[in-house]
Predict the structure.
Amino acid sequence: MFVIFLILLGMAVAKLFHVQIVKHELLKNRAEQNWDIEVPFGGMRGNITDRNGDLIVGNRLAPTLYFMPAQNQDIESVASTLATILDADQATLEEKLSKKTYMIKIAPEGKNITKEQADEIAKLQIPGLYTGVDFVRHYPYDELLSRLLGFTGYDGDGLAGIEYAYDEFLLGTGDKIRLYTDAKGIPLPHVDDGFKTGNKGASVELTIDVRMQQVVERELMQAMEKYDATQALAIVMNPKTGELLSLASMPTFHPANYQETDQSIYNRNLPVWMTFEPGSTFKIVTLAAGLEEDVIDLHEGSFYDPGYVMVGGARLRCWKREGHKDQTFLEVVENSCNPGFVEIGQRLGGEKLDHYLRSFGFGKSTESGIAGEAKGILFSKEGFGPVEQATTAFGQGISVTPIQQVQAVAAAINGGNLYRPYIVKEILDDQGKPIRSFEPELKERVISEETSKQVREALESVVANGSGRNAFTDGLRVGGKTGTAQKVVDGTYKDGEYIVSFIGFAPADDPELLVYVAVDSPRNSVQFGGVIAAPIVGRIIEEIAPLAGITNRKDQIEKEYRWGDPITHRVPDLTGLTKSSLTTQMYTYRIEWHGSGDKVKYQLPEVGTLINVDDVIHVYTE
């Protein structure tokens, strides 16, 4: 019996050693899991930056209150104190604080409170009341890019836009304070409180340039006000890579106040969501196909436009009722002549025209990675009869998205390469190391370099001599095409409602910027893309060109003078001339002298600058 007793005693000692020493950490952690209550800190989402690293969306500290009823029985006093500080209803707070549970999250009254409120509450040292660290999104540029960026919800999850599409990367796991209590919620005196560290979300670097975005949104906002438009949109892309440098929709909203905004605004990113008949901007694709298949010659071929063309018993009119009469096909492009493009479509034939439409990316998603992208609508092959073929050739009867148009025109002018548009450049972890990078992705080659060169030349001529003259920018070679499309509502064209657009690029000989602008239902003006949208694109290109490193180009086509245009001249070189010699030159310009000398040392504007005849030339003497 004594031996058996020793053996059992030894086994007991061994078991105690195993439990207390060998299994100590495992069993301690299990016990703490039964004792602990976690006060969560909000997860810090990753930042969203532009291509230059400028912060577009960050985080701002926003504390949240938690209450443990077991540690404070004076619910009425706590509710009264908090109601005063939080400007909340005391009865509502009392009801929430009286719940039979371990821990109560005081929301929405105590969620995302200000730092000043949190400091005031902390000074009171109220038993059972804890302040958890939380974060809300911070927008340094306020409403800028809002319909692209989207917003986060009540619990910090992405609900729309980039925040939604890349939520799995942006989402962070918050830190947590571990409080150790007994079953009644009373703190355990022999166990220290703990801390569990979380991880910050990854940062998303966009291809967007904030400086360009500011210019674009300013121009769209001014257009909305000037023309009392329903909505407007713009896209800026690098046609050589597919990088989206700007993506704008108007009207806009503040992401922090999305609940106050109509869902039709924050759920619709117009450049990828909106579908409509493209109008004459689509003629660029027809032109490229006609040149590639060698069915037209821009300079040698000719076409007569009586103002209409008959196709399958339907009379398809030109925008100019009396017609453009005899034209070269370059003039057909400059004049945006509908019958001329019907002729190009007929020479191509329905099968080849349909082939090029689909090769240029119409009828399917561009795979840009932007949430909410639509596919547009093309005629089926069975329904692509002579009339449908004719109207498609000049951009009517089909439905496309703005980003599809930009993708297609980029291919037409960049040498024939169809690149996938993309908006995210890189995703970086909290240490700044790349998790995922995005590079230009070539889908296919749709036309030859020689054809692309002819398209560029024709579209530069449109801006200098044709319907896009309002986009002309002196010293910067710009090409482009206007578009005016009647809106379709419930299957019928709506009188007086148009979407006017312009797509332009620069420099015309080696494009680095492609800008598309569309204004929906403008008023207070003639509703033509060349009148409304073209000057907007011209101003955008002029202002963002230096940001893209584009300088003045040689061999620019001089803008053709037409009746009603302001009379302009090139600034002559006046340096080295004296007052007396300037008088003998018989210049009609207004000249202002600065300085007490007699000889001109330098002048403003610079030599060769295009100015109006009533502008002033300032000369500075030695």
